[in-house]
Amino acid sequence: LTRPRLFSGIQPTNDSLHLGNYLGALANWVPLQAEYDAIYSVVDLHAITLPQEPAVLRHRTRVTAAQFLAAGIDPVRSIVFCQSHVPEHAELAWVLSCITGFGEASRMTQFKDKASREGTDGSGVGLFTYPILQAADILLYDADAVPVGEDQRQHLELSRDLAQRFNHRFGETFVVPRPHIVKETAKIADLQNPEKKMSKSLGGSGCLDLLDDPKASAKKIRSAVTDAGREIAFDPENKPGVSNLLTILSALSGTDVPTLVSKFEGAGYGDLKKEVAEAYLGFVEPFQARVEELMTDEQALDDILADGARRARALAAPKLAEAYDKVGF
Ligand code: ADP
Ligand code: NA
């Protein structure tokens, strides 16, 4: 293997991914397959940091994998697998948790934010140690690069610290991963609250779920919040709704924003929304057809995931064995 290695994952916490997940993650993962030996995981161990219904989780894991494939992740060229199929993730996470400081883990802002909003009484300890499992995901594969959004930067920093600490204490074992910040990563905003990012947790008419009825989604786009002005300009500060629609159209059509802005000179918001809806339908209809096809042959999908797990384990098992040996097991 001469190409650098890359790891990324998405939690199977919903049936449908949304357009933000697609444009912010999956659509970037596809071209990265040409540069990297890419490993893409449906991270179901992470999903159970919040309560999940077993049968629902099992379905969501499959349908999330199907969406990876429908988006263009090639399971032959890349490794596509389900995290729980590779026990080394949990095993390495334990070792790493023993070299993570309690204060260090407590400083993770994602946990702090959640704890301050909702308290910790109802949460499992897994929600607290989650970034350590994330470090194990990355370090097991000697991943050089991890595509991350701003919100995951601190967790990647922990992965780097843990790799360096382990190497220092026990001898050179892990590659220290670097963040791969995808240039111009589309940050997709909620259609109704364009100052917030599109998210499942906001849900509702501002969130475009990829597996929803396309006609209903087109309607959501036509009802997107814009602003009182008339001019189609890219100005995220003062025109977040219009700018978000331009970002979406640009990402879906491959046309850059300035070109779109000059194209829409003199046109109205309705024209822009109409074109965004058309571009979205042009993408989502074949996407849904591919997901449906993958979901009708459950055995074939399970075979793909089993093959991915076998190939992932072939990398993870010797790495864990090396770490165990260094620790004194
Ligand atoms: P959600 O916020 O809906 O819970 P996740 O946090 O599970 O989504 O994110 C999964 C992946 O999708 C991550 O790589 C994240 O950066 C990306 N992502 C999520 N929402 C957006 C968005 N609105 N715009 C761009 N990328 C996003
Ligand atoms: Na999230």
From TrEMBL:
Keywords linked to the UniProt accession: Aminoacyl-tRNA synthetase, ATP-binding, Cytoplasm, Ligase, Nucleotide-binding, Protein biosynthesis
InterPro entries, sorted: aa-tRNA-synth_I_CS, aa-tRNA-synth_Ic, Rossmann-like_a/b/a_fold, Trp-tRNA-ligase, Trp-tRNA-ligase_bac-type, Trp-tRNA_synthetase
Catalysed conversion reaction: tRNA(Trp) + L-tryptophan + ATP = L-tryptophyl-tRNA(Trp) + AMP + diphosphate + H(+)
First-tier enzyme category under EC: ligase
Span(s) of short sequence motif 'KMSKS' region: 197-201
Pfam families: tRNA-synt_1b (PF00579)
Gene Ontology molecular function: any one: tryptophan-tRNA ligase activity
Residue numbers binding ATP: 11-13, 20-21, 149-151, 188, 197-201
EC number: 6.1.1.2
Localisation per UniProt entry: Cytoplasm
Binding site for L-tryptophan: 137
Major location category of this protein: cytoplasm
Chain's role: Catalyzes the attachment of tryptophan to tRNA(Trp).
Complexes and interactors: Homodimer.
Family from the record: Belongs to the class-I aminoacyl-tRNA synthetase family.
Protein name per Swiss-Prot or TrEMBL: Tryptophan--tRNA ligase
